[in-house]
Amino acid sequence: MDGSILVVENEISARQFLAANLQNSGYKVRCAGDVAQAETLVREIRPDLVLLDWILPGVPGLPFTRWLRNDQRTRDISIVLISERADEQDKVAALEGGADDYVTKPYSGRELLARIKAVMRRRTPQLADDVVEIAGLQLDPAARRITAGVHEIDLWTTEFRLLHFFMTHVGRIFSRAKLLDEIWGHDAFVEERTVDVHIRRLRQGLAPTGHDNVIETVRGIGYRFRGDAV
């Protein structure tokens, strides 16, 4: 099996279609028709990825995304949000809410599978195990732990990968396109705007220890890590 996926979709025909396609592609699939069912299933068996419709009866998909991200047990589950909303502000809201990817309806089955595979691949990145210590930050990839003195910094998976990449390439400026290639992969269906959202979340995670300024915006080019910023 390539992994387990929880499909949260209230329309029976759409749910059955998604489940069949994912099972045919080798995934172990469980289904829920609303957030209450999804919460129960997540507590029973933690899935690798949640494929979640924005519009659901009762609690919508976006608040459930935030709930998953705020719970220590589920915060690292990959989330792909599906919606008919195509405005940029909706995509940004989904990403800032914790979604790893955002798919707009209508979509092709091949595109959705490609997006899911890309998200699943970057869920367990192959990082070097060497501990990196710069600018008062210590990052341990093997333990997936970041500390600043006695303070522990808690980041989501993508932000952790971004910080690790920056800390192993101190001073170098990277364009959004280059960061997409390095962090998300060459074949990921991700817009450059996504980088800005995750950079913002990374800075927010580093702010409590005063390390948010180590990530510098280089106007018109991209971003870099400043080891002398703190």
Number of strands: 12
**Rg measurement, Å:** 18 Å
The ordered H/E elements are: EHEHEHEHEHEEEEHEHHEE
The helix count comes to: 8
Residues in helices, as a percent range: 25-40%
Low-confidence stretches: none
Percent strand: 15-25%
Instruction: Write out the strand line-up for the largest beta sheet, numbering strands in chain order.
Output: 2-1-3-4-5
Largest sheet: 5 strands, parallel
> What is the general shape?
globular
**What value does the average pLDDT take?**
88
Gist?
It contains eight helices and twelve strands.
Feature tags:
alpha/beta; 4-stranded antiparallel beta sheet
Report what the structure shows.
This protein is of the alpha/beta class and 230 residues long. It contains eight helices and twelve strands. It has helices spanning 12-24, 35-44, 61-70, 88-96, 109-121, 157-167, 176-184, 193-206; strands at 4-8, 28-32, 49-53, 78-83, 101-104, 132-134, 137-140, 145-148, 151-153, 174-175, 215-218, 222-225. The strands form three sheets. Strands 2-1-3-4-5 form a five-stranded parallel sheet, sandwiched between helices. A hairpin with a 2-residue loop joins β8 and β9 (151-153). α6 crosses α8 (193-206). It is globular. The model has no long low-confidence stretch (mean pLDDT 88).
